[in-house]
Specification:
Blueprint lengths: L4 E6 L2 H9 L9 E3 L12 E2 L1 H5 L18 E3 L3 H18 L5 E5 L2 E5 L4 H4 L3 H16 L3 E6 L2 H11 L7 E4 L1 H8 L13 H9 L5 H5 L3 H8 L3 H8 L7 H6 L7 E11 L1 H21 L2 E12 L7 E11 L2 H15 L6 E9 L2 E2 L11 H21 L16 H4 L2 E2 L2 E2 L5
Parallel strand pairs: 2-4, 7-8
Antiparallel strand pairs: 1-6, 1-7, 2-3, 5-6, 9-12, 10-11, 10-12, 10-13, 14-15
Helix pairs in contact: 3-5, 13-14, 13-15
Length: about 425
């Protein structure tokens, strides 16, 4: 039985939400979603369709917007966007079981429509139109859709074909894909082919999907390793992964990560303070979820990429979630790897090989009573934060010059929770 997938995208989602909230039409309003308090160099998270027609690119910086264009600046409100996204997911549930929906991002989702077409007596395009109309009538958000015989083709139909369709709906099967998109350029328009992969393919004399499909596979595997398999399959429009496969997938290892782009250039000492805050938040997250780790990684990025990023991965001698122990390990890496004379703009930490605390055997050689006391204290802090608010209990370092915890506790995904109402 041939599968039918839908991939639905909420068009210029953040900007559309801001327009709807103001009673404005996104297609007739100049609006950008950006935190102007961060300066002219801040990235616009989204621009309205009207701005795009004027040549303003999504993800541009404020100073790149032509001076002759007048526009509204909307401060990001991540909680509001999450609320809209959740409500629109509720619309999807009117038509599909949750087992047949895969939420790909806050504004994009896949649906396996195969068994629903007969139920609703609709063609794939009619079903897509019904859902798109329901989203617009209920929330005022315009959506586009890709239809494909597999998830990859549905995504490509959305990203490339739907843009040129008056109905905002595109359709692809393997034959149509080869006929219409085999010679499409650039390659970076295709899902999962970034600029870096495109450059590597170009160096091999490959500039389109036809080129990938007709290149000797041995050369592709030599250049891309196991990832060549995906490139080859996608060049023919093939994709074996289903939503059921995604739902059933269980990763062999788990990790938790946290990254910060600092608001300004930080010195070695100020960035060291931020690292301490980040490790504390990571430790609290591990303890709250009854998890421990024995692998850590630190990433340090420098201002304007003046030098390559530094950092290190390290396997520690035992599983832990204790702040003092994790902090000691992270600071040992930081003090060795951070370039003290260079301004720091980005810090990333991660805990790898994360497992449940119950699976770890206690050591006879540790001061277990002392560790349990620290863990109990941190768990109490978690409960207070969850009940009263994250900024209701803080460490002394959070009040030092350059600390970011209090501000970031007010953000979602690095952006303002509420914005300006």
């Amino acid at each position: 039985m041939q599968k039918t997938y839908l991939c639905i995208d909420l068009k210029t989602f953040y900007a559309s939400v801001e327009c709807v909230e103001r009673g404005l039409d996104p297609f007739n309003t100049n609006l950008v979603v950006a935190d102007s308090s961060r300066g002219k160099g801040t990235i616009c998270l989204a621009v309205s369709p009207k701005m795009k027609l004027l040549g303003v690119k999504n993800r541009c910086r404020i100073f790149e917007i032509p001076k002759n264009i007048k526009y509204i600046t909307a401060t990001p409100r991540m909680k509001k966007y999450i609320e809209y996204s959740a409500n629109i997911y509720g619309i999807y549930l009117k038509y599909f079981s949750k087992e047949d929906i895969h939420v790909y991002s806050i504004d994009e989702a896949f649906m396996d429509a195969t068994s629903y077409l007969k139920l609703y007596h609709k063609t794939p395009a009619d079903l897509a139109k019904t859902i798109i109309r329901d989203i617009y009538d209920t929330y005022g958000i315009t959506a586009t859709a890709g239809i494909g015989t597999n998830m990859y083709l549905a995504k490509i139909a959305l990203d490339i074909t739907a843009k040129h369709s008056p109905s905002n709906i595109g359709y692809l099967d393997e034959e149509k894909y080869k006929k219409e998109l085999w010679y499409h350029k650039p390659l970076s328009d295709f899902w999962q082919i970034g600029r870096g992969i495109e450059k590597r393919l170009n160096k091999m004399g490959i500039y389109d999907m036809h080129g990938i499909a007709n290149t000797e596979q041995k050369k592709l595997y030599k250049e891309f390793g196991i990832n060549a398999e995906y490139l080859i399959d996608h060049s023919w429009g093939r994709e074996s992964c289903t939503i059921a496969d995604i739902k059933a997938y269980k990763p062999k290892t788990n990790s938790i990560s946290n990254n910060q782009i600092l608001f300004e250039d930080y010195s070695f000492e100020k960035a060291r303070l931020v690292l301490k805050e980040m490790v504390e938040l990571g430790s609290l997250r591990l303890i709250e979820n009854n998890l421990v780790t024995d692998v850590i990684h630190l990433y340090i990025g420098y201002s304007k990429n003046v030098i390559p990023a530094t950092g290190e991965s390290k396997k520690i001698i035992k599983y832990t979630n204790i702040y003092s122990e994790l902090l000691r390990e992270f600071l040992s890496i930081y003090d060795r790897k951070a370039v003290r004379s260079m301004p720091i703009r980005r810090i990333g930490i991660s805990f790898g090989n994360v497992i449940q605390t119950d699976n770890v055997q206690l050591s006879l050689f540790e001061e277990q009573e002392k560790l349990d006391k620290e863990r109990k204290l941190e768990l109490t802090m978690c409960r207070i934060k969850n009940k009263m608010g994250k900024n209701k209990i803080l460490r002394g370092m959070d009040f030092e010059n350059g600390a970011t915890t209090m501000l970031r506790n007010k953000l979602i995904g690095g952006h303002n929770r509420w914005g300006v109402e």
